[in-house]
Specification:
The protein starts with 19 loop residues before the first helix and ends with a strand. It has a five-stranded mixed sheet with strand order 1-2-3-5-4. It has two domains: 138 residues, no CATH class; 202 residues, 2-Layer Sandwich (Heat Shock Protein 90). 60% of the residues lie in helices and 9% in strands. Strand 2 and strand 3 form a beta hairpin. By secondary structure, the protein is α+β, with helices and mostly antiparallel strands.
Length: 417
């Protein structure tokens, strides 16, 4: 007995599919960019204008050389040092444009050049801190926060060592420490903002994944219910139509009964489809297909008998399981009987319901076709749908040949639903 044709019910794998664009979206900040960002352009322009302008103004302050350096005979070096500081400031400012493309190397260049601006001309305020701060923000955005930390530590170390060697004012050490503290605060704030954006990105991805999973499960449910309604009804109609054609001349009364069964089955299928569409449109309440109890098995057995098979029902399932398990058993039995009528015409089928230990068990076993018959077309997904329905309630379903026939056995642990 093979499964009936119908709509596939397996769609969960779709919820795990990720497009390349979706995989890259969350890591855009950490990926190198070929073009400078707007923040990099703004920081470069602002830093270049302010640092260069202030540096040019300092060139005129040669008279403060002795008071600043406290080193005799260096006044003649101040203009050259101020000019070098201007160049270093320009390099630090323009280096911001390269951080988006080369985060690590460009961060080191900006750190070295910015540190040089206040070592060459140690007059407050340390203007090199402005491009340095922009560099830290950009480096954190591109995933180079470690290099920004190393740059701050290196700047503090080099500056303090230079002051100790050259004999500069000790007050400049305090200024350097305060500058590095300010840069560290910028680093902490930038890192915290990036961590928050990362958490928001992860939350969005999880929400999207949950939505995809929910939609996949909804599609599975719709496919499963459509299969139960349409595949069973159409299979029954097909079998009854074959009976009617076969008996039309010899036994018109039985042919008429088959046609009446076709009418009733198609009417019930239409009602079920209308109900499903009403639920999907929000015009009706309840599940896509109303749940059934084991009391419906008598009608199902009668319907299967009208399709030309002999069915024996052995119901020893007491006490009754939950409504969800009863409904699943009814659907599985109906599917299995429909399969038997299609693939083993004239067979004898035993439907047995029993309780084994702490589980409800339903078995549908046929003896094989009574006479040789051509194979029914279509591979179908009936067994897959039955197995999924059992798994939804924590149960299992085994289906396969048994002797000359076919057996479907569903087991539902007590309390699984």
């Amino acid at each position: 007995m093979a499964e009936t044709t119908g709509l596939p019910g397996e769609a969960a794998s779709a919820s795990r599919e990720r497009t390349p664009a979706a995989r890259r979206a969350g890591y855009a900040d950490a990926m190198p960019h070929p073009r400078p960002s707007r923040l990099a352009v703004l920081g470069a322009i602002l830093s270049f204008v302010l640092v260069t302008g202030a540096g040019i103004g300092r060139v005129a302050l040669v008279a403060r050389a002795d008071a600043t350096w406290h080193v005799p005979g260096v006044a003649h070096l101040v203009p050259g040092l101020a000019a070098a500081s201007i160049v270093a400031g320009a390099v630090a400012s323009l280096g911001l444009l390269a951080i988006d493309r080369w985060p690590r190397a460009a961060t080191v260049v900006v750190a070295v050049a910015a540190t040089a601006t206040w070592i060459l001309v140690p007059w407050p305020p340390p203007l090199g801190a402005l491009p340095y701060a922009f560099a830290i923000v950009l480096a954190v955005r591109r995933g180079a926060a470690t290099w920004a930390v190393a740059g701050i530590v290196g700047s503090l170390t080099v500056t303090v060592a230079t002051i100790a060697v050259t004999g500069l004012s000790r007050g400049w050490i305090v200024g350097t420490v305060m500058t590095c503290v300010a840069l560290t605060i910028v680093l902490v704030i930038s890192t915290a903002r990036r961590a928050r954006r990362e958490q928001e990105r992860i939350a969005r991805e999880q929400a999207d994944e949950q939505a995809r999973t929910r939609h996949a499960r909804e599609r599975e449910a719709m496919a499963r219910e459509l299969h139960d309604v349409l595949a069973h009804s159409l299979s029954s109609i097909s079998v009854q139509a074959g009976v009617a054609l076969h008996l039309a001349d010899r036994e018109p009364a039985r042919a008429t009964e088959a046609l009446a069964t076709i009418r009733d089955t198609s009417r019930q299928a239409l009602d079920d489809v209308r109900h499903m569409l009403g639920v999907l449109r929000g015009e009706a309440d309840g599940p896509l297909v109303p749940e059934a109890s084991l009391d419906a098995l008598d009608a199902i057995v009668a319907s299967a008998t009208s399709m030309g098979i002999r069915v024996e029902l052995e119901d020893a399932l007491q006490p009754r399981p939950s409504t969800a398990i009863q409904s699943a058993i009814v659907r599985i039995v109906r599917e299995a009987l429909t399969n038997a009528a299609r693939h083993a015409p004239g067979t004898h089928v035993t439907v047995s319901l029993a309780r084994e230990s702490d589980a409800a068990r339903a078995a549908v076993v046929d003896d094989g076709p009574a006479t040789a018959s051509p194979p029914s077309p279509g591979a179908g997904t009936g067994i897959l749908g039955m197995r999924e329905r059992a798994a939804l309630l924590g149960g299992t379903l085994d289906a396969g040949p048994r002797g000359h026939g076919f057996a479907v056995v569903a087991t539902f642990p007590e309390g699984a639903a």
